[in-house]
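Fold Annotation — chain and its backbone

Fields — amino acid sequence, structure tokens

___
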Amino acid sequence: MSEMQATYLKDYLPPAYRVTHTELTFDLDPTATRVKARLHLERHPEREAGLPLVLDGEGLTLKQVAIDGQPLEADEFEADAHSLTIARVPERFRLDTEVQIAPDTNTALEGLYRSNGMYCTQCEPEGFRRITFYPDRPDVMATFSTTVIGDRESLPVLLSNGNPVEQGELPDQRHFVTWEDPHPKPSYLFALVAGSLEKVEDHFTTQSGREVLLQIWVEPENLDKTDHAMASLKRAMRWDEETYGREYDLDRFMIVAVNDFNMGAMENKGLNIFNSAAVLTHPQTATDAAFQRVEGIVAHEYFHNWSGNRVTCRDWFQLSLKEGFTVFRDQTFSADVNSAPVKRIEDVSFFRTAQFAEDAGPTAHPVRPDHYIEISNFYTLTIYEKGAEVVRMLRHLLGWEDFRRGSDLYFARFDGQAVRIEDFVACMAEVSGSTSTSSCAGTPRPAPRRSTPTASMTTPPASTICVSPSVPRRPRGRARSCRSTCRSASAWAWWGPSRGTI
């Protein structure tokens, strides 16, 4: 077995080629699903010409590959266990591939898998490469068209991202549905669900007057447990409009609750997938805490539509850009619709108990790490909860009005893009007139000081905040250290439950 290599933030390069549009066709079969992919590619303007095309792929059986309609000979490409490489490609071209996968035996539960007769996907962070050959990284954002084909009797419901644009019957008791997602997204937000499901529907009228169809799809035995989730979704949609000015952007919003989903919840564009335990409640079986938990998770995944989907992270080192910001948004939503003091006490108690322990242990890491070996290990309390506390600090330092202006600028400037934490900070700095960043591991020790006024001062002095990590000493007297940072009151340090959610 080869030794796993670390990935470093300092080594980041844009992809050699970017995808502008992706067309997928799934012909579902438990052991032999065929996936046809048509990728519209072009050379990235920041990369040099003549680079090979390298696409990620895991556990795929390649059936055919063609460029601009011309099939490639065996000596024109190389396919191994982890990638597809084509040495010579044009600067702008169309790539067609067909692969075969086996959802029934996909025990990794990443990509497309099948459990109890239900097809389901989980693509964050790097699961899409188990579906087809693709540049499986968050900074490759493309519009998607997805056609799902399945058996009408066993798979009556065929779902994917976006809006349904076509459906029909096929020979041999099969049928299809085609979905179009007009908003560019990275591959980790792709979703597909197929199986025997029933739905509850409602509608939401946006602030601009558009009617949005809301659907919660569940397995038949859970149909009576959806009322609270639907009400929570509508509250979250209204709150995001009123608080952040963020309106939903598709014709429908779908939640799928399945008993065998391997995560708690996932924010796939327009098609959130939940484990049933994270979204379904009933007054006779659920506690008040369970109702509040479901409300918060539904809101968290919906809020990702803007803080994570429309504007996403450039690379996985920026994970807290979407998760820390969205945790802060779901915390303030829950505080607004329930009791703000009680909510804050709950959040701080959990933070001090769980995240402080992480900071004090051997796995302590900055909110933005500088390297990783396995990115799945960084879905941590530091990334989520500590990241949310840093955003909360920004809100307090700037004040709500400037923070809202900064978030408006961030969403407007970077809509449809994959960006860095620095870009979020820059928007806040632009509206407040201050800049500063810092990154370190450990629990900060704030030491507020106020500078001494002088006769020449015409305005009150700005307070400063000095931060150094509070970390216990290691054995044999060796201490973990991090340089202290002093900043003005309108500047900040950079950015961590996951609650089983993404």
In short: The helical segments are 227-244, 288-303, 319-337, 340-359, 381-398, 400-414, 421-432. Residues 46 and 71 are 29 Å apart (CA to CA). The longest strand covers residues 174-185.
